[in-house]
Amino acid sequence: MRSEFGNKKIIPAELELECLTALSFYPELKNTDIEFRFGYLNFTMISKPKFKSILKDRDQREYVIIVQKPGLSKNNLEWKELTFNALVGWIGHELGHIDHYLHKSSGGIIFIGTKYAIPGFRRKIERFTDQLAIQHDLGYALYEGVDYTLNYSCATEHYKNSQNKYYLGLDEIIDRIHSKEQWLAIFRKTKMRYQPATDFEEDQGRF
Questions:
Q1: Whole-prediction pTM
Q2: N or C: which end of the chain has fewer CB within 10 A?
Q3: What is the mean pLDDT of the chain?
């Protein structure tokens, strides 16, 4: 697995299998430079372009996924609590952000960074990224992590409220999994377009 999906990747030994498994669902990221590392965060994990590479051509950019350092959680949720599948799903969500960035110009990435603090924009970005994970067949893994966080973990109420506010809910995830083939990602507008089954079948018949 390392030889197939570990090209241009830096991965801590503690997370190697989970990261490589998540990467296997994103073949378009095979040749993308991504470093996974531990850090001090208010979140469980985040992904972003490396600052020095933002202005480079899309195929030359470098990205980093920072995972909360064990034992330093500020929200009472440690990534080590998550099952293998749930952790793969959450890493898959972060890879979805990188997949999104690959479709953006340097200006587009800077725009996202400056607008992310606006609640409505953050909600749009995170729900779009959840859908990208679902489109990459990580819906059930994503569901498992969200279900644990909301219903079984000791995460703070603030963290749980943020999960409910900005991300797809459990019922939405299941619904999107079942209708996955009818959603089309429009990266330029950071939105998903839903095509009813009849319209989707008609579109398929044109090709």
A1: 0.92
A2: C
A3: 92
